[in-house]
Amino acid sequence: MWVGGLPLFAAGSCMRGAAPSPRAAGSPNYAAHVAELRTRLARAAPDSVFHMVVQAPFVVLGDESVERVRQRATDVVAWAVELLKREYFAKDPDHILDVWLFRNRGSYRKHCLALFGERPTTPFGFYSPQHRALVMNIATGGGTLVHEIVHPYVHANFPACPAWFNEGLGSLYEQSAERDGRIVGRTNWRLAGLQQAIRSGALPSFRKLTATTEDEFYREDPGSNYGQARYLCYYLQEKGLLRRFYHAFVAAQRTDPTGYATLQATLGAPDMAEFQRDWERYVLALRFDG
Ligand SMILES: [Zn+2]
Fold first, then answer.
1. Which domains are present in the chain?
2. 167 CA to centre of ligand 1 in angstroms
3. CA distances from 23 to 60, 135, 158 (A)
4. Per the confidence metrics, is the pTM higher than 0.85?
5. What is the pLDDT of residues 185-199, one digit of tens each?
6. 53: which strand partners?
7. How many angstroms does the Cα of residue 234 sit away from the middle of ligand 1?
8. Antiparallel, parallel or unpaired: β 51-55 and 97-102
């Protein structure tokens, strides 16, 4: 199986706001949470019909048919969570997260405003730590959903993860498949823009990319940050190094908060300028036929 999506134009930042501090320990009460959601929906969207599927640690809500919502909960949410945990994540998020799957652009825009009091800034979807919600226009494909699922897992397992790697890993899986029981990212729509940036000689060095603060990564993006981070992760994946890099980075986060030294070590300590030239040639030879 594969999940992916071809967006209409490049997404904005897909992380919104800071997460609230963790609640007191205890197992989440799904029945109470579902009851709260029903009350909230009755108040904010009384004319809409939503189906809910509990797929711990998520509650999946959608206004497509009940079969379709169930299918997405199994084929995308449960599938991605199982395979991502196999690669990277020992811990589930310690609270329930809502996955809102709006059936089209109109529903997405209308319900974002009604339920969260804000208009979406990307056409595909976003993760809101503040609302503990993944919010999707599911008509754009399941790829964004897998991307956004990565974020709460990174938050639970590697809270100090810098934006470049959080987004590199998330966006790697926005076009994903299963290979020998493992999740793999495929080439996708971000390739063309990245190849253009490489050809124009405008791409920052990996030292610069990995040193970006959250603000620099999201708000001072020359347009290539997501693509550069994604295809670095893609390269590591194809060389069989991505999983190792993730775990080495988590282990070294205090001494190497940007991940740059860990990246260099994982690559076998090459000259990084030379590595970047090789990587750029590698990326220029990739194809995406979506
Ligand atoms: Zn993201």
1. 2-157 (3.40.30.160), 182-284 (no CATH)
2. 5
3. 21, 22, 18
4. yes
5. 999 999 999 999 999
6. 60
7. 16
8. unpaired
